[in-house]
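Re: that chain you flagged

S.,

Sorry for the slow reply, it's been a week of failed gels. I finally had a moment to sit down with the sequence you sent. For the record, here it is as I used it:
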Amino acid sequence: MSAPLEPDDRPVEEAAVEAADVTLSASPEPVLPEPVRQRIMVLAAAALPGLPGDEIPVVLRRVARFAPNRRARLGGREIAAQLTADPLFRQRIGARIVTEAGDLGAAVTSGVAPAAADPVEVAALAYLARPEGWRELIDAAGDVVRADADSAALADRIRTAEQRATRADHDRTVARVEADKLRDELARVREELGQLREEARTTAKALREAQAAQKRAADLLATEKGRASRIAQEHEAEVRRMKSRLTDAETAAATGKQAAKDSRAVDDARLWLLLETIGQAATGLRRELALEPSDKLPADFVADAAADRPGAPERSRARAQDTDDPGRLDQLLALPRAHLVVDGYNVTKRGFADMSLEQQRKRLITGLGGIAAQTGDEVTVVFDGAERVHGLPPAPRGVRVLFSRKGMTADELIRQLVRAEPPGRPLVVVSSDREVADGVRRHGAYPMGADSLLRRLARS
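Prediction finished late last night. Pasting the structure tokens below so you have them in one place:
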């Protein structure tokens, strides 16, 4: 294992750097202008990956792996610290940067600053190479930067002044335009003032004439008052005469009033007799024509002509649509003045096949009574008459129960009910028979499957 190097055994390069640092340690690091500092960071960051791995300080090895466009921005603080604290690292990277700078680097190393060179670039190279007089080069660059900053500030002030002058010119132009408008407005106001003065003179003249007319009217009024006073006296005398005549007239009127009352009683008796005669004639005509109030719906006429009904018909309303969805059935049942027609056995044999026919009918009619009560719609259920059972209990309120007559099926009776309805009335037919659905659809009805009604009844 080799012994550590003694002071005399160190490399000449390191000894020279340390000797230079001892010489310069009495002088603090110069305050770099910001452009110079930024340029030093860019140059060092660009040259950092080119150094051998063992010459790169440990804290900068991670920075050396950064992308070129991120190295100076993210690792600038670490690079600046190493350049200040590590003279050997500064000498190594400065030598590389000066070499890459070519003629400019050689000139700065010799302590000469070319007149055409960028002062910021010269100051950055001088800081890294540190030839004799490098502080003066940095100070000169600082003076140039400050001069440039002052020039930029002066140029900015000049631009600001020019902008203010431009705005002032614009404001003056606007002011002139506004002044012209105000002059025009003043001329118009003066013209209107002249018109108003002329109107005032005319009004004053009319007022004087009105005052003169008022005086004449006052004189005439005084004359008329005297005349009216005389007329009033004459009128009072006439009133007294008229009151006397009125008393005589009231006496005569009382006599005439009694006579008129007796005459009106005779006229009332004659009018009552006439109206009574007309009323009896109208009653007789109605009885002769046999006109009675009609309380039947179109389905009732079909029921009387083509079906047997166990109970009295009820009038109600319903709503409908098609498919087997009970929600769609509810939507149709919400239509105004809807009529629900049900193919009875088609529904019961699909939903209550395990029951007797009597129980099937009873269950369906009871459920339809609930729908009629909820919606207030007209409900008609049709059964084939061949299987009719006598003694059927009364139908719920709002439900019409029909049985087809001999020789006619329930399907034919349903089609007659549909054809009897006026066009435009919502009519819903519940049957899973395709022939029935197609037939009623051609006449404007809404066919619905039996399952929709069965689901609706199960939900209730």
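What I noticed first: The CA atoms of residues 35 and 248 lie 131 Å apart.

Talk soon,
D.
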